[in-house]
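Support request from a user on the community tier.

User writes: "When I paste my structure tokens into the form, the page sometimes reloads and wipes my input. The last time it worked, I copied everything first. Here is what I submitted, just in case something in the input itself triggers the reload:"
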């Protein structure tokens, strides 16, 4: 694998609600400065830091936290093609490759050019009412149309490239990226997809006497979800839900841009990371 050029303008950001991550971010920034790197640190909700990202002031964004922090960093950085290196100080870290005690060695690899950039598909979800767009969002994990406060199923129809697939009576329907296949989709019984794919995964949530299997769509296929009956909401990557009315449509397709992650070693890291997280039952008898 050819060596990549090392970054020299680096932002280090942590999630403000994780104090240990904020402390770690400051330590990483200090370490970088000792090496003569132009580095700044802050939190993901730091308005000045966000403005500098949008202005193109950095060539690497180091984020410190858990998978939720990585999602927030992706929403910020992906539109500008800014690569992200995740340092895991959270619980699971499906999206992370570098653990808390490993970042110094990882940074040494980074400056030796011993890394590669992984591109991960994002989704674009658009909320339509009577043909008018009420908003659009990008997701790294998933867009979910599901029941709201009322504890009863909703009736949703799904169409692929304008052709009806089926109608669901369920708690909801998940449209997931391959990255999101290890998140809500996995908890709902969906398959795990390799992160380099560009396919949308559809998974019903608690379907009642309707299709109860996940469907992997062909690359480039879009899905439109119509709210036929019931109180429903749209949630994108777990953000604050948006209320949907009956006959509203959520149009979901591949995003306008992808998230870029810094990786080390071979692409098999995904499967090693996956099995390490899945082997949590002590009866399996494997080391954690």
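"...and here is what came back when it finally went through:"
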């Amino acid at each position: 694998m050819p060596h990549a050029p090392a970054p020299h303008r680096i932002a280090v950001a942590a999630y403000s609600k994780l104090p240990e991550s904020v402390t770690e971010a400051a330590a990483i920034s200090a370490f970088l400065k000792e090496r003569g790197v132009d580095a700044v640190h802050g939190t993901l909700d730091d308005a000045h830091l966000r403005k500098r990202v949008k202005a193109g002031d950095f060539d690497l964004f180091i984020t410190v936290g858990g998978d939720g922090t990585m999602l927030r960093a992706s929403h910020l950085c992906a539109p500008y093609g800014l690569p992200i290196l995740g340092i895991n100080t959270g619980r699971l870290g499906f999206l992370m490759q570098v653990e808390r005690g490993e970042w110094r060695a990882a940074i040494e690899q980074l400056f030796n050019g011993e890394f590669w950039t992984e591109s991960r598909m994002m989704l674009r979800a658009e909320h339509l009412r009577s043909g008018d767009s009420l908003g659009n969002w990008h997701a790294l994990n998933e867009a979910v149309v599901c029941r709201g406060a009322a504890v009863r199923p909703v009736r949703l129809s799904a169409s692929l490239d304008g052709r009806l697939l089926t109608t669901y009576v369920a708690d909801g329907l998940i449209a997931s990226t391959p990255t999101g296949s290890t998140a809500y989709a996995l908890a709902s019984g969906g398959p795990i997809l390799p992160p380099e794919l560009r396919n949308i995964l559809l998974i019903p949530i608690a379907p009642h006497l309707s299709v109860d299997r996940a469907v992997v769509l062909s690359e480039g296929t879009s899905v439109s979800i119509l709210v036929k009956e019931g109180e429903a909401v749209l949630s994108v990557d777990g953000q604050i839900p948006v209320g949907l009315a009956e006959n509203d449509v959520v149009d979901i397709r591949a995003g306008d841009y992808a998230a870029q992650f810094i990786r080390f070693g071979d692409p098999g890291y995904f499967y090693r990371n996956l099995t390490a997280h899945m082997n949590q039952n002590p009866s399996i008898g494997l080391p954690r």
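Agent notes: The reload is a front-end session timeout and is unrelated to the input. The mean pLDDT is 93. The helical segments are 19-34, 47-54, 67-77, 103-111, 184-187, 269-278. Escalated to web team.
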